[in-house]
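Late entry, evening session. Most of the bench is empty. Finally got around to the prediction I had been postponing all week. Sequence below, unchanged from the version circulated by S.P.
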Amino acid sequence: MLTTAQSPVRVPLGTKPLGIFGSLRAGQRNVLELIPEIATHAPILSGSTGKRWHMVMDPAALRHILRDRVDDYPKSTVTKLILGPAIGESLFVAEGEHWKWQRRAAAPVFTHRNVASLAPVMSLAATRSAERIAAQVGRGADVFAEMVTATFEVISDVTFSDGEGFDRETVHRAIETYIGQTAKVGLLDILGAPPWVPRLHRMFGSAGIGDMKKVADLAIDRRRADGAKPVPDLLDLLLRAQDPATQRQMNTAELRDNLLTFIVAGHETTALTLAWALYLCAFDPATQTMARAEAQAALGTRAATADDLPALPLIRQIVDEALRLYPPAAFLARTAQVPDSLLGREVRRGDTIVLPIYALHRHHALWDKPDSFDPSRFAASNKIDRFAYLPFGDGPRICIGASFALQEAVIILATLLARFRFTRIAGKDPKPVMILTLRPEGGVWLQVDEA
């Protein structure tokens, strides 16, 4: 972990080749340590660590992979091996026509109108979070743990209407256990072994997933029997979602896998964004003071709502900058399906294409002072290459819940900054470590005081 008076914490990227076993150790310790420091300067790197790979940091090449030739670069085998047992063939991992019809069916669920209609749930969660934090005023608090609680409340409430028929604790425990036991890279992954070769640590790490799926299946069956809620929630919207091209609707298994995808991704990534944003505000008290003034002017003492978002530009910029410095999905991978060329490099069928979003967001050719915290770089007057900033990916497979996550993050962050002051605790800076997502190892401990 590196930190200076000018820059918030960052991952120490490698300066020498790792080899197969060095890569294995780094991948199990912190996936981002697989990225060499030169990746923050070079447009592309290529090599072989048991399997040929290309690490791409050039925006034009990333556009080629993610938008122009998306079908030729599906999710990597390792990604599917990690997530498949938990979320099946849902939107996140499905490919080809099976992905396309699900995306067409689900897209209307996440329209601006539907996302805005879910904002009251976010405002209520922000109020509850502020009440819990108020009980810790005058001492240190792990704001990451609190943000996990707040965002899980949001996703479970918008999915299953206040948790009726939904055992939050069972689902949350299963998610945490699954990530902890199965998401680490293994030797067979490094060597590029085919997917049918068993990865034992994943076989034994999936025990709680069956319980999680049963909870979701029961909730879906109960809703089908009882009918929709007066105010439709995410489950209602998905139950009536239909592919406009084929009129196909999701069966119970497809509904469950997509709901679990939204639950896992929908709370984890937003909790991380909020925790890192609060750390960055504590790191830069002057920016925090300006953000607090903006929030208090718009909100007074109430929680933020969707209608307040236009009056909170700095809060939104802080969220964007947190996503740049600490993108939850900081390391992506694709597998080339056809021969190709990237920036003059030969790509063979089966090559691994690494998209190191962490390095892209700190690339010296793309960002001024890339390791510094500077929310103003996201001011409306600044032009940023669309493929230089990819916290939600891009192209046809851009995260379907991006607008939901951003709305939730701004509502909660504004509500908290209007009421509290957050200060770093000496010796307690978070350590960014990526296993499946970029988490602050040990939490984000900050001193909390009244604003």
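Two things to note before I forget:
Residues 252-283 form the longest helix (32 residues).
The radius of gyration is 21 Å.
Will write this up properly tomorrow.
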